[in-house]
Amino acid sequence: MAALAAQQDELTSIVSPLDETGWLHPSRCEGWSVADVVLHLAQTNEMAVASLQGRFDEKLGVLAAGMDPDAAPSVNEGAAVLVANERGQDVAAVLSRWQESANTLRFELSETDPRQRVVWVAGELSAQTLATTRLAETWIHTGDVAVPLGREIALDDRLWHIARLAWRTLPHAFAQAAYQPAGPVAFALTAPGEETWHFEGDDEALTTIVGPALDLCQVAGQRADADGTALVGEGPDAAAVLDLVRTFA
Fold first, then answer.
1. pLDDT means over runs of 10, the chain (249 residues)
2. Which of 26, 10, 1 is nearest to 140 (CA)?
3. Beta 196-199 vs 185-190: how paired, if at all?
4. Is the distance from CB of 185 to CB of 207 less than 8 angstroms?
5. Domains defined along the chain, listed by start
């Protein structure tokens, strides 16, 4: 929760001083402006709030009203359509919607048992995991806004949660790709503070991914190719892990 709040606050600090030209500046997401990215995060925060309140399908139906189901065969394409449906709003309204969605999400998470199962895009997950997915997505999109604007982003222990999410969801990533791993996978990642973060199960790993936590998070967020990073994989599933690791559906 603290990491999510810090990430939301960082994004707000970047976009709130922008004039209209800044809001219309191209982001790192192809075809999306800064305003589009913030709108997308507001929409998905609202979906997360609805999930915590037990009305996910209702909210999705409202956002997708009038949308041709065949126009969005994937999650990414669906997100693009939702943004296109509401693109062009006043930037002050987008900022206000983003801030309200962030505040409401934090409140609803604080009122929910972390172990409670809730509905999300790829199926059911715990409220705690939902919070981590929101952190991961907000971190990814903060970079999508900051990098084109020439702004630095904070590198701290928020990455631990994102890297752990990537490790914990490897079975889902493998299943989505119909890939059968040879055995357990471990991560040994260098944190921003130079200590090593170990992510491993009870059974001995056959494959280990070693390198900077930042690189792993960028690869898992599909903002970098593993070949262009300092990540090194050892073991039979190394190539598959670096190709399939994800922090989102």
1. 98 97 97 97 96 92 70 71 90 97 98 96 92 98 98 96 97 96 98 97 97 98 97 98 90
2. 10
3. antiparallel
4. yes
5. 2-154 (1.20.120.450), 159-244 (3.30.1050.10)
